[in-house]
Specification:
single chain, 295 residues, alpha/beta, 5-stranded mixed sheet, two-stranded antiparallel ribbon, globular, transmembrane
């Protein structure tokens, strides 16, 4: 990606300190409620492969870990021994800055005002508005405090273990989580949550898939709207990343078979399809994964 001339977003926090052990997901962010983003199942798949357990057993609460003792910066500050952001943080903030420009313009065209999210960098574990978060959760968006949480070591797993290297694969992950923030601002997450409370687990999962696929499409819309950042091969890298986080891909890797009823993020083919729709159209109106009746 051509990020050299891109301005970094100032909407970020850097939190230092490492939280408690274990592989639990953040407390209070259940799947099927719009809380976890595209990266979550990758880390679950990795953990399952290492431990030899069914990944579905890891989709519960985080085991009640207490809050991590941490130092927290104010937005726009970068604490630490050197007082500087790492290169991967800088790249992430350039992507975030680009999403702010794109969604700011798209909201304005519709007569609205885009309120940016904040990207929280943490290492090991931290406390989110949705509960305790640790690295096993992968990147996720928390509606309770309208923040994206990211342990950047996740990108090493994305590249090394799942064959999705490159700046655009990382950008896709961030843009997907920003897509959840857009859904939050649009009121989609609240509507989905209310609907899921009336549904069976299977039906709630199916509705959650639509949430995740729309966020994939929104990620594609961002890239299409700021296409000058893309270099040859970037779109393909994003599509590989989308396939890597498909529910069927992860289920096959972890347990050797696929359970469609357990999908919460969508198949590899569907995730690629909706990312491609966004990339080809650049139009968020084309990202109606719910159908004309909505969630």
């Amino acid at each position: 990606m051509r990020l050299d001339d891109e301005s970094e977003s100032t909407n970020y926090e850097i939190r230092s300190g490492r939280g408690g052990g274990g592989f639990g997901l953040p407390v209070g962010i259940p799947l099927g409620r719009g809380g976890l983003g595209c990266g979550s199942l990758i880390l679950i798949g990795i953990i399952s492969l290492v431990l030899g357990v069914n990944p579905l057993t890891l989709l519960g609460d985080g085991g009640g870990q207490g809050p991590v003792v941490q130092q927290q910066s104010q937005p726009g500050e970068a604490p630490g021994s050197s007082g500087e952001k790492t290169p991967v943080m800088s790249r992430s903030l350039k992507v975030l800055g680009s999403t702010e420009r794109v969604w700011g313009r798209l909201f304005q065209e519709q007569g609205g005002t885009y309120q940016p999210t904040t990207l929280v960098f943490y290492s090991g574990g931290t406390q989110a508005g949705c509960g305790f978060a640790n690295a096993s959760a992968g990147p996720f968006y928390c509606p309770a405090d309208k923040r994206i949480f990211l342990d950047t070591s996740f990108f090493d797993e994305l590249s090394g273990r799942f064959g999705a290297p490159g700046d655009f694969a990382q950008a896709y992950v961030i843009a997907h989580e920003v897509g959840h923030h857009v859904q939050d601002l649009e009121g989609t997450l609240d509507k989905v949550h209310a609907a899921q409370n009336r549904l069976s687990e299977r039906e709630a999962n199916a509705l959650q898939v639509k949430v995740e696929l729309q966020a994939d499409c929104y990620a594609g819309v961002w890239a299409a709207q700021d296409r000058n950042l893309l270099e040859p091969g970037d779109a393909e890298a994003g599509l590989r990343a989308a396939a890597a986080v498909g529910d069927d891909t992860l289920q096959k890797a972890s347990q050797g078979y696929v359970v469609p009823e357990g999908f919460t993020h969508g198949s590899a083919a569907d995730r690629q399809k909706w990312l491609r729709i966004g990339l080809d159209s650049g139009d968020p109106a084309r990202c109606d994964t719910f159908g004309s009746r909505g969630p």
